Amino acid sequence: MRMTRHEQVYQLTFMPTMFPVNCYLVEEEKSLTLIDAAMPGNAEAILKAAKQIGKPITRIVLTHAHGDHIGALDALRKQLTDATVYISARDSRLLNGDRSLDSNEPETPIKGGVPKPGKIATRPDVLLQDGDRVGSLLAIATPGHTPGSMSFLDSRSHALIAGDAFQVRGGIAVSGQVRWKFPFPAMATWNKIESLRSAMKLLKLKPSLLAVGHGDLIVQPEAMMELAIQSASRKLDSVIVH
């Protein structure tokens, strides 16, 4: 595992040279918030990183319910029995293995490694809605990769932890846009148009840092985010996103 720090954000990267999977520790005054739970088998490394920082993990926040973001959740919960677990209300259904769509959602199939019903024992304590707060983090609904994907903006530094709303590995891209050097996030994306809308929403926040599920941290990412959005817009036949 590789640990990279930028201000209050610690990026933990597993398999950095092959198939990088990131999760994040966000430092608060007396505690840590873990964003995403990486892959099965990664729990001990995450706990070791927290010990190195010297603060307890008191919150576990999930950007969405794909297997490379929830893999170590059960193992972590067994050791962090007092930690509060958060996920969007919408993706809590995916966490339970329910791939059904709501009547107001685009009828494109949900893709990616969603757990089978009963596979994940941990039940979330808090079901997040757009605009909720988790410590210093603002929860932002960013559907597209999954129907209930969320991103998190640190109100202190404007660092943005965006799950798979963007990818950086293989070249920056909006979720759903294939980068052939690393096509996997695109292959697991539910709806490209919703992804583009969410990416534009995030750009308006003017983040100081972009931290995603796959790829390195980008400091002052606005210009690169804008280029990725322009590319996605062209490939979606100039869809107008309101």
Keywords for this entry:
seven-stranded mixed β-sheet, 24% helix, globular
The major sheet is characterized as:
7 strands, mixed
H-E string: EEEEHEHHEHEEEEEEEHHEEH
Major sheet strand order: 1-2-3-4-5-6-7
Q: Please state roughly what percent of the residues sit in beta strands, choosing from under 5%, 5-15%, 15-25%, 25-35%, 35-45% or over 45%.
A: 15-25%
- Assign the structural class, choosing from mainly alpha, mainly beta, alpha/beta, alpha+beta, or little secondary structure: alpha/beta
Number of strands: 15
Distance from N terminus to C terminus (CA atoms, Å) equals 40 Å
**Radius of gyration computed on alpha carbons:** 16 Å
Number of helices: 7
Model description:
The protein is an alpha/beta fold and 242 residues long. It has helices at residues 43-53, 67-70, 73-79, 89-95, 184-187, 192-203, 222-235, and strands at 2-6, 9-14, 21-27, 32-35, 57-61, 84-88, 126-128, 133-134, 137-141, 150-154, 159-161, 166-167, 173-174, 209-211, 218-219. It has a 7-stranded mixed beta sheet with strand order 1-2-3-4-5-6-7. Strands 8-9-10-11-14-15 form a 6-stranded mixed beta sheet, with no helix packed on it. A two-stranded antiparallel sheet has the order 12-13. A hairpin with a 6-residue loop joins strand 14 and strand 15. Helix 6 packs antiparallel against helix 7 (222-235).
